[in-house]
Amino acid sequence: MNYIKVENRKTKINVISKTSDGKSEGSSQISILRKRTVPDKFKERFYNEIHVLYTSGIDLKTCFEIIIQSESKSSVKKVIEDVLEGVIKGGSVSKCMLETGRFSQYECYSMMIGEESGKLGDVFYELSRYYTDKIKLRRQLISAMTYPSIILLTAITSFIFMLNFVVPMFADVFKRFNAKLPEITQKVISISDWFSNNLIWIILGFISFIAFTYWARDFKLYKKIKSSLVLRIPILGGIIKKIYLARFCQAMYLLNVSKVNLVSSIELVKKMISFYPIEECLDEVSDEISQGKPLYMALSKFNFFESRFISLVKIGEEVNELDKIFIKLKSSYSEEAEYETKMLSSFIEPLIIIFVGIFVGVILVSMYLPMFKLGTNF
């Protein structure tokens, strides 16, 4: 018999195999971080295809074989082949997927529930929807930020070029005439001199910052500070918050329709959604639910979950329809995030263009103003 054990406090999920006499053959904790996970785009396609095949009456072994034949990427194909090999040897899909180290515990536990409840086809469908929505929200955010990022990068490049090459050239000309320069020109030349003298340190500082963020990305303090700063960014912070709330609701919906108990659901969602404010909240929420408190009351202690969210969760618990509440909240947050993402794009584009125009204009005026004065003197 195979099952997945969820330990509430430390949130460990172990795959334990037992012999017919009930003794444990061994226990292996799978660390998902040891291997690079399968891309979300493949997961979306994989769950969608296997849902269509499985609900058409095709057995799981044949479903996996068809997907393997149609997959061109060797690294991904190897993962599915490993899962199929385990299934052929008699293992469950959930256990075989978990042992590859390439699927999240959230997916594997959902699979296990689907296998035990006989609703594996529904789990395939919900996981497909989950990754479809996740990819859609990510694309919207990337789409909104791509054009402004290109403009900002162009502005920074122009800034570096003009301060490092153009301004020093004009400064040499002004020195030859030994003329008194306007105050704005003196300030621009001073900034250019400082920038030229410290360019190597600026580059090293930027590289060091990137290296530090990569090194510290798993530290609790770094994640806390980073998420706090991100959520404080006007408009963008609100969008990111809604995206993670939508993911939280989608995950809770899937686990609720699979009849997973609340404590296990909270533990799994915490491991699935790697965003510090949610992880921090769910640590305490899990403990309070274990002590008999309702979900809405445990969540209400944290500002991350707004009053509308808490009120609807309370209603869902009272009428025993949490799954419907979570899917409605998920749709609401997704639509709001999509709308605000479009608004962000519309707002940032002209703002950056104005910024670039002002920057270039100030430098040009500061450089040409002394030349006009020199011309009038002659």
CATH level 1 name of the largest domain: Mainly Alpha
Task: Characterize the largest beta sheet: strand count, sense, and whether it forms a barrel.
Answer: 3 strands, antiparallel
> Helical proportion?
over 70%
> Can you tell me the CATH architecture of the largest domain?
Up-down Bundle
Give the spatial strand order of the biggest sheet: 1-2-3
Please write the string of helix (H) and strand (E) elements: EEEHHHHHHHHHHHHHHH
Broad shape: elongated
The CATH topology annotation of the largest domain reads as: Receptor-associated Protein
Classify the beta-strand content into a percent band.
5-15%
Average predicted local confidence, pLDDT: 78
Radius of gyration: 28 Å
List low-confidence stretches: 1-34
Structural class by sheet pairing and helices = mainly alpha
Integer tally of domains: 2
CATH H-level superfamily of the largest domain: Type II secretion system (T2SS), domain F
Number of helices: 15
Number of strands: 3
Instruction: Measure the end-to-end span.
Output: 98 Å
